[in-house]
Design a protein that fits this description.
Blueprint lengths: L1 H7 L3 H14 L42 H6 L3 E9 L1 H7 L13 E8 L5 E6 L3 E6 L2 E6 L5 E5 L9 H6 L8 E9 L2 E8 L1 H11 L4 E10 L5 E10 L4 E10 L14 E2 L2
Parallel strand pairs: 6-12
Antiparallel strand pairs: 1-2, 1-11, 2-3, 3-4, 4-5, 5-6, 7-8, 8-9, 9-10, 10-11
Helix pairs in contact: 2-4
Length: 267
């Protein structure tokens, strides 16, 4: 891994820029210094993430998908785990070393996002990349060698956030039904599930055919944010053709923090 860092030091910004462009290509949004309240991708022709709504005609109280993106952007902080497979993001992440390289994935991400009072983030792509954004600078460790390179803040880390992954679901605006109340990640939630029309539209947007799709979203009853997302397209050979899964924990926990790494070169 240390050899990769030495060979690729000058390419890290180009590669990370490619990640941001790939996320935008799948509807995730342009990179910013923090999650956008719109959840959109910066193009006027694309609907916003808040256009996702429940098709359940009897839903009159409780949280809704229409407000989930805004509620996510309005959090103070959270920790997350996420898995991505398929699509333009995986195409770009496959250029990184480690698990999933050279293929469809899956890619496992984890970390912390601080949204207020000062935005900061710490995200790891398992076996491939560690990036920290704090105090107006980004610190990048391609290959996870333990040694970081300091750069001016680019906002690219936001492209690897659950907020951007959730925004990519905005390509379709209806077709989810509230199917029950459940406890998820330690909070009370309403479980929303996609019907056949929404699944067909998602398959079309993702350009994944001949696969069995499922899509479930759990929205926190009190705070209204997406506590958990589970989107999957499974091919006939039982392989995963497309996947977006994430779980949020430690929401608004005062113990959440992000600090700059100490092993920094070129600082």
């Amino acid at each position: 891994m240390s050899g990769f860092a030495q060979r690729q030091g000058s390419r890290s910004l180009v590669l990370l820029a490619g990640i941001a462009l790939a996320v935008s290509a799948c509807g995730g949004g342009s990179a910013t210094t923090g999650p956008s309240t719109s959840g959109g991708n910066g193009e006027s022709s694309a609907p916003s993430a808040t256009s996702i709504s429940s098709a359940g005609p009897t839903e009159t109280t409780g949280p809704s998908l229409s407000g989930a993106a805004g509620a996510l952007a309005g959090l103070n902080s959270y920790r997350f785990t996420m898995t991505l497979a398929g699509g333009a993001v995986s195409d770009t992440l496959s250029n990184l070393p480690g698990p999933g390289s050279g293929g469809n994935g899956p890619f496992d991400l984890s970390g912390t996002f601080i949204l207020t009072p000062a935005k900061a983030a710490d995200v790891t792509v398992a076996g491939a990349l560690h990036i920290v954004s704090v105090g107006g600078s980004d610190y990048q460790d391609p290959g996870i060698t333990g040694s970081f390179t300091k750069t001016d803040t680019t906002g690219i880390i936001d492209s690897l956030s659950p907020a951007v992954a959730f925004a990519s679901l905005a390509s379709f605006s209806s077709g989810f039904d509230a199917v029950g109340s459940e406890t998820k990640n330690g909070v009370d939630t309403v479980h929303f599930q996609a019907g056949s029309s929404a699944l067909a539209e998602l398959a079309s947007v993702a350009s994944v055919k001949d696969a069995t799709w499922t899509a479930d979203i759990w929205v926190a009853t009190d705070a209204g944010y997406p506590a958990s997302v589970d989107i999957e397209a499974r091919a006939s050979d039982n392989s995963i053709a497309y996947e977006i899964r994430f779980d949020l924990t430690n929401v608004n926990d005062p113990a959440n923090s992000v600090t700059a790494p100490t092993n920094v070169t070129g600082a």
